[in-house]
Amino acid sequence: MAKRDYYEVLGLQKGASKDEIKKAYRRVAVDNHPDRNPGNAEAEERFKEATEAYEVLADEQKRQAYDQFGFAGVDGMSGGSGGGFHDFSSVFRDFEDIFGDFGIFDSFFGGGRGRGSRRGANRGSDLRYDLEISFIDAVFGTKTEIVYPRHAACEQCSGSGSETGGGKKTCPTCGGAGQIRRSSGFFSVASVCPSCSGQGSVIENPCRVCSGSGLVEKRQKVKVSIPAGIDTGKRISIPGQGDAGPSGGTPGDLYVVVKVRPHEFYERHGNDIYCVIPIGFATAALGGEITVPTLDNKRVKVKIPSGTQNDRVLRLKNEGVPFLQDSARRGDMYLKIRVTVPNKLSGKAKALLRELAEVEGEDHSPQPVPLAQLK
User: Fold this and answer.
1) Which of 78, 82, 218, 263 lies in the 20 to 30 Å Cα band around 193?
2) Spatial distance between the Cα atoms of 107 and 190, rounded to a whole number of angstroms
3) How many CA atoms lie within 13 A of 202 on its CB side?
4) Who's near 238: CB < 8 A, 6+ residues apart?
């Protein structure tokens, strides 16, 4: 079958930048990596084809020769049309940068970095706890206690995993390497040994309580301090309260993710608070003074200007939510005025309103208000 143009293989145009070449190769190689497509010969061939294209296009000298002379320009060069993959590893000087977050790097090179350098090999898992709190607790902060399941060191064996407190032997499956290898076409792939979980050793006499894992599940109680001004989606980190690490490793962290229940009267936007305040028709027309409750149960006097219209917004400074990083600062509170019209009127009230309508010359044939005036 005829070879495809290298730019076509990676879905690129001539003149593509190095970064574009790297991103294109990453996309094709990850999609077709043998670990994700076991037994798929076509995917393996596409992976090999993409790697060959990348080796040429990522090298300035090879790319220049390829752009000028095509396959003939790179024939005989490592990775070119006649060179095969005898210098395959030279393609991946930045291989970990391309594939590191996909967990492919170690397996592709057969674990070339070794067991000892795997980051956080014995670290316990981080845990998440979703905590729902009231609106007022979120505004002013609070302290609470939570209970959640976590893996802790087994008390029977002190976390060693051994019934007798020791006794490890080399893993018979991987011979102490922590990895097993399998052939996958043109290269060898290594994966974590399933018998020892990459440790290279196994317990000779496993603990009867934890079955050799060194860990047991228990209910953990932790006090959590909720800072003033926190909002939904924010998380609180509690170091060392996640799962215990295997073989005495460092424990993970606990992340408490906050969800704030809506309030009956108040609505939050950033650090500002909005609420609707009803006032009577007479107060709106004549003006006056009302008292309104704030978040911390104070009663604050608010002046209503005469002629106040429905939906007018008044501001109370520094009566909003404290800033999360600076609780001395607070947002504002906004009052949206709702002018109420009584459903029932006494005879005297009706007479007075009719008199008011005559005095004011109330228009009984109003025209629509221009929309521009409502903005």
Assistant:
1) 218
2) 4
3) 16
4) 222, 224, 253, 254, 255, 256
What CA–CA distance (Å, rounded) separates 259 from 231?
7
Cα-Cα-Cα-Cα torsion 25, 26, 31, 36, nearest 10 degrees, comes to 130
**At 276, phi and psi to the nearest 5?**
-105, 130
State pTM to two decimals.
0.58
Q: How far apart are CA 327 and CA 333, in angstroms?
A: 16
CA angle 175, 179, 181 (to 5 degrees): 100
Q: CA–CA separation, 92 vs 183, rounded Å?
A: 19
Q: How far apart are CA 122 and CA 251, in angstroms?
A: 9
**Comparing C-alpha atoms, which of 86, 95, 82, 1 is closest to residue 54?**
95
H or E element in which residue 140 lies: helix 135-140
Closest CA to 268 of 192, 331, 195, 196: 331
- DSSP H or E run through 224: strand 215-226
* DSSP 3-state of 182: strand
Domains, in order of start, for the chain: 6-109 (1.10.287.110), 120-155+215-262 (2.60.260.20), 267-362 (2.60.260.20)
> In a structure prediction context, what are the per-residue pLDDT tens digits for the chain, which is 375 residues long?
578 899 999 999 988 998 899 989 988 988 888 777 777 888 888 888 998 999 899 888 899 888 888 888 777 654 454 444 334 444 444 454 555 444 444 444 344 443 333 444 578 899 999 999 999 999 999 999 999 999 999 888 888 888 876 567 888 888 888 888 766 544 556 777 887 777 788 887 888 888 888 899 999 999 999 999 999 999 999 999 999 987 778 899 999 999 999 999 999 999 999 999 999 988 998 999 999 999 988 999 999 999 999 999 999 999 999 998 888 899 999 999 999 988 888 889 888 888 887 887 777 777 787 877 766
Longest dimension (CA), the chain: 107
> Distances from the Cα of 312 to the Cαs of 276, 280, 288, 332, in angstroms?
10, 14, 15, 16
